[in-house]
Each structure stands twice: as structure tokens, then as C-alpha cells.
Amino acid sequence: xxxxxxxxxxxxxxxxxxxxxxxxxxxxxxxxxxxxxxxxxxxxxxxxxxxxxxxxxxxxxxxxxxxxxxxxxxxxxxxxxxxxxxxxxxxxxxxxxxxxxxxxxxxxxxxxxxxxxxxxxxxxxxxxxxxxxxxxxxxxxxxxxxxxxxxxxxxxxxxxxxxxxxxxxxxxxxxxxxxxxxxxxxxxxxxxxxxxxxxxxxxxxxxxxxxxxxxxxxxxxxxxxxxxxxxxxxxxxxxxxxxxxxxxxxxx
Length: 252
Ligand SMILES: NC(=O)c1ccc[n+]([C@@H]2O[C@H](COP(=O)([O-])OP(=O)(O)OC[C@H]3O[C@@H](n4cnc5c(N)ncnc54)[C@H](OP(=O)(O)O)[C@@H]3O)[C@@H](O)[C@H]2O)c1
Prior knowledge:
Layout: E1 4-7, H1 13-24, E2 28-33, H2 36-46, E3 52-56, H3 62-70, E4 79-84, H4 100-128, E5 133-137, H5 150-170, E6 176-182, E7 185-186, H6 189-193, H7 198-205, E8 211-212, H8 213-224, E9 234-237
Parallel strand pairs: 1-2, 1-4, 2-3, 4-5, 5-6, 6-9, 7-8
Helix pairs in contact: 1-8, 3-4, 4-5
NADP nicotinamide-adenine-dinucleotide phosphate is lined by residues 8-9, 11-15, 33-35, 57-60, 85-88, 109, 113, 137, 139, 182, 184-185, 187-189, 192.
């Protein structure tokens, strides 16, 4: 039987590109996201390459997560890799200008959603043991502060520390954990963050040679297929054209 990967947020960006990458290698795919039509389209596209199971899932809903996991067809239950990818940034404005609801949405998705899925799939990953992987999508924003990063960056700092702490508890089980932390990557991420402002999204990426969804999918696949005795703890990846700036100082 082929290896199975379970991907959250497979309807766009990194998640969809990762689904294509794993399918090309013949892995069985359990693909989830909120947009059914996109899941259906991906299933139609990839079914010739690999077995594909799709399930509509909002990761914020713990009961729904449990149900999707309980309803996994038998052929998709022997799980090799979980890609905790579903996530979003909202509100690029300064913290003091952001609606509380937007902070809650980021926390509910990037933190609560990620732990919901991890908790529900840990038994399957532990049953696989040696070679199994949890790959969490963090961000450079979880390590480096920037204006407008507020709760998004903090939620990705959670992803980093949760990944490290999971490694401690899973020591001896053979299950690996990795925090993949991309920098600027052109997906629908900025469209979501700006609530559909395509021009703002285009401006951000224009001339910057951002990472592509395929670049990150390749890293996800690489981490999942490393020899079983290797665990990459954190993989931080930026476009060559992205770096940091000096400390900001406010003077009177
Ligand atoms: N692009 C970047 O620059 C960048 C950099 C670092 C880290 N990241 C992280 O990488 C991950 C993927 O982002 P992306 O760049 O590929 O963005 P994207 O193109 O907007 O894709 C985000 C995916 O997350 C899913 N999602 C959002 N909320 C969800 C929810 N409540 N339940 C289930 N699925 C949900 C979306 O699917 P549905 O809308 O269909 O549910 C979509 O498939 C995120 O965790 C993001 O924070 C992105």
C-alpha cells in the first residue's frame, strides 16, 4: 500500500502544490479545505496519479475534525505524513487599528485549528511510528517581528514552539516533527490578507521574485521523504531578494 499524506488547506497555495507533489510520487492523498469545488477539481486532476480522498473541513471546528478523521476510508488510515498547512493572515494594519474579530480568526485557525488536527491524527501517526511526520507550516513571522505582524506572527511563534515541544514528547515514537517557516511566497495569502485586493497583492510581489507554492511543496516533500533517522526541526526559507532591516528608532 502507498504512503498516505493528510493535508489541510489543500484548496490553494502550498497545500494544493503539496498535493500535486505527493501525487506525482504516487502517495495516497487525504485532502481537506473549506472550498468543496476546489477539492473536487483537485481530486479530478490527481486521481489518475494516486488515490485521492477529499473532505470539506474547517479546522477551527474540533468536532468536524474528529468526524473527518473517523470517516477516513480504510485505505487512507495508515498515515505517514500530516501537513498542517491551513492558515491565514488578516489585517496588515497596526495592532491598534485591527478588529478583535480578525485576531480571533487567526488564533482560531492558525493555533486552535492546527492543534485540533494534530490531536485527532496523533494516534494514526503513532501507529505508523518510525518514519511518520508532522509538518507544520509556520512562518518567518514566527521568528522575526515586523510592523503589522501582531497576532499572525505570534500565532506562528506558537507553531514553532508547539513543534519543538511535540518533538520532546514524541521522542522514542519514531514520529518526526518539522516547522517549515517560509518567507514571502506568492499564493492567495495576500489576497486573503487584504480581503481580495488583487492590485495590493500584485504590488507586493512585483519584482521581488517571491517563493512559489511549488518551491515550498518541494521542501515539504523533501522533509517527508528524508531517511527515517533524520528530523529537520525547523526549515526557514526566504526568497533571495528578502532580508531584514535595521532596528527602528522613534526620536522626538
Ligand atoms: N504565502 C506566504 O507568504 C506564507 C509565508 C509563510 C507562511 N505561510 C503559511 O502557509 C500556509 C498556507 O498559506 P498559503 O500561502 O498557501 O495561502 P493560501 O493560498 O491562502 O492558502 C491557504 C489555505 O488554507 C486554507 N484555510 C484557511 N482557513 C481555513 C480553515 N478555517 N479551515 C480549513 N482550511 C483553511 C484555505 O482553504 P479554504 O479557504 O478552502 O478553507 C487554503 O487552502 C498558511 O498557514 C500560511 O500562514 C504563508
